[in-house]
User: Which sequence fits this backbone?
């Protein structure tokens, strides 16, 4: 039996290590995620497989040679060890938040647990070519809105653990203004406040900054634990414009367009373990007054939703198998089409609307008319832990899609739906693929194998691949 097991492992090792013709290179010694290309460097989040450094760090790799040029391991050292890490967590996390317009420096957030088990946050500006620190500021930022506020007004917005918001010059790190923006919370429940702030609860659009927090004033208001308070703040002055409270908002995100319309996407849950269900609605208000303009699915008749705001239009996919194109100003329906499946993720490329469905399918519709060009079963499975832009990427002519049920990565012609190529990597355990990004003629793919009691650690490590995009 031992001999058979040894032969089996030898075969596995042989099959897992042979590169395909599509591979350019691979990384196996670091767990890799969220890659970005900055000049000639590929910068990714990751950690050493041997856990010799208690940090989920950034690594900058020469994208041609795979050589590591610099990392944030040294940056993290002063903050390691205040609170112990574990086999599933680290005491320090660093993340790439944005890249300067020239690419000369990048913004890196660092989160760590101090000796009182309080989560602390620091933002660094560091040189992209060698990782040297230019300046730093204490406080938390919002990942979703970070790049937009820099490109629009050259400002960074930081929230500290005392409820203050700071406006920072994005080039120099100099403080522009400071305001108390969060209400005073009961200290017994302050952990919950931090938990919500850690989830990307600051949004910046046009001339307004939106803060999402809990509307608690007393610790006894436990029945309001799923309510959200949205505060709109004038970006230039830091003064408050308005407040809105949304009840039972288990998930709430804020979006906007250039027409002074603010979109609140709300998901709520109902039922128990045997009949659990997700419902969603979209509410649109005036950016400056909070006056309601229109809403979609207010009574949840369509069930759950997926959506995309594209300039002056909104694409909405409904659980009862329809896609709607709405005028963002009025909410009026431009077109509607039945799909037969739940469309939950959208990308617009030219006149093509790329649609990913909850189960198995990907399709392309004419974005102006809603007429379907093609639809294919590519093994998309929403039960996996990767969604949306992690399973779909595209350029002007090709869709790259992850079909985890089929254990493949596909390249599909965007106009015809024809398969250009597919790729997979052998693993003795089930794996899931996830896209990093496309950089010219290279697409970067993560592979996350499922762990097994019977397979050595080498076979269930996360691997990272650089693949050729051309057929």
Assistant:
């Amino acid at each position: 039996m031992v001999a058979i097991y040894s032969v089996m492992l030898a075969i596995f090792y042989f099959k897992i290590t042979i590169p395909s013709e599509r591979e350019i290179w691979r990384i196996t010694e670091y767990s890799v995620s969220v890659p970005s290309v900055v000049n000639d460097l590929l910068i990714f989040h990751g950690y050493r497989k041997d856990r010799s450094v208690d940090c989920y760090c950034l690594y900058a790799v020469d994208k041609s040679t795979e050589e590591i040029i610099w990392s944030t391991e040294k940056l993290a050292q002063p903050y390691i060890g205040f609170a112990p890490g574990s086999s599933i967590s680290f005491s320090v996390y660093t993340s790439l938040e944005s890249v300067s317009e020239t690419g000369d420096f990048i913004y890196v957030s660092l989160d760590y647990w101090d000796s009182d088990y309080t989560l602390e946050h620091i933002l660094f500006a560091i040189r992209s070519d060698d990782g040297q620190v230019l300046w730093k500021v204490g406080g938390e930022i919002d990942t979703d809105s970070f790049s937009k506020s820099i490109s629009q007004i050259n400002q960074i917005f930081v929230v500290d653990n005392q409820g203050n918001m700071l406006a920072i010059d994005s080039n120099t790190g100099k403080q522009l203004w400071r305001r108390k923006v969060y209400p005073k919370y009961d200290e017994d429940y302050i952990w919950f406040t931090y938990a919500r702030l850690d989830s990307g609860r600051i949004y910046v659009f046009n001339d307004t900054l939106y803060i999402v927090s809990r509307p608690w004033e007393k610790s006894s208001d436990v029945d309001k634990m799923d309510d959200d308070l949205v505060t709109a703040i004038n970006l230039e002055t830091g003064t408050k414009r308005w407040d809105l409270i949304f009840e039972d908002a288990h998930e709430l995100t804020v979006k906007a367009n250039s027409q002074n319309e603010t979109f609140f996407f709300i998901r709520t849950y109902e039922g128990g373990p045997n009949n659990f269900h997700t419902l969603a609605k979209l509410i649109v208000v005036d950016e400056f007054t909070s006056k309601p303009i229109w809403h979609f699915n207010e009574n949840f008749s369509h069930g759950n939703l997926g959506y995309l705001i594209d300039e002056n239009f909104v694409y909405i996919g409904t659980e009862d198998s329809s896609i709607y194109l709405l005028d963002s100003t009025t909410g009026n329906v431009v077109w509607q089409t039945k799909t037969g499946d739940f469309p939950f993720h959208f990308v617009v490329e030219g006149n093509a609307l790329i649609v990913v469905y909850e189960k198995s399918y990907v399709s392309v519709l004419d974005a102006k008319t809603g007429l379907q060009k093609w639809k294919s079963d590519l093994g998309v499975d929403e039960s996996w832990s990767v969604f949306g832009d992690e399973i779909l990427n595209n350029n002007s002519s090709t869709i790259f899609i992850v079909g985890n049920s089929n254990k493949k990565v596909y390249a599909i012609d965007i106009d015809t739906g024809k398969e250009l190529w597919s790729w997979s990597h052998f693993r003795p355990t089930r794996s899931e693929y996830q896209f990093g990004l496309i950089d010219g003629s290279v697409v970067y793919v993560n592979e996350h194998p499922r762990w097994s009691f019977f397979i050595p650690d080498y076979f269930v490590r996360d691997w990272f691949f650089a693949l050729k995009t051309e057929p």
About this structure: The chain has a mean pLDDT of 80.
